[in-house]
Amino acid sequence: MKPEHRKKMIAPLVIAVLLAAYYLIISALCLFLPGIPMIFKFLIAAIPIALASVTVYVLLERIEEIRSGEEDDLSQY
């Protein structure tokens, strides 16, 4: 991997890790909501888990774009 590719991967990686961690923390906190049945807690917690999964998927797509040398998505339009 070229060194310039590594530099371009740092920002998306950091942002994705922070965002996924935020969503997972929110999901964990949803499980401690008082006065709500457990099934609803799991349903509420599933939304941030899904968002964290999408964040990781988008990160993997962005890494592939960087590796392929496609710097800007505007070239597709």
Distance between the termini: 27 Å
Q: How many β-strands, per DSSP?
A: 0
**What summary fits the major beta sheet?**
none
Overall residue-averaged pLDDT value = 87
Number of domains: 1
Number of helices: 2
Strand content: under 5%
Helix content: over 70%
Which consecutive residue ranges, at least 5 long each, have pLDDT under 50? none
Instruction: Write the H/E string, N to C.
Output: HH
Helix and strand content put the structural class at mainly alpha
- Radius of gyration (Å): 17 Å
Output the keywords.
77 residues; mainly alpha
Account of the protein in words:
The chain has helices at about 5-30, 40-70. It has about 80 residues and is an all-alpha fold. The protein has one domain. Helix 1 (about 5-30) runs antiparallel to helix 2. The protein starts with a helix and ends in a 9-residue tail after the last helix. The model has no long low-confidence stretch (mean pLDDT about 85).
Quick rundown:
With 77 residues, the protein is mainly α.
What is the topology?
Layout: H1 3-30, H2 38-68
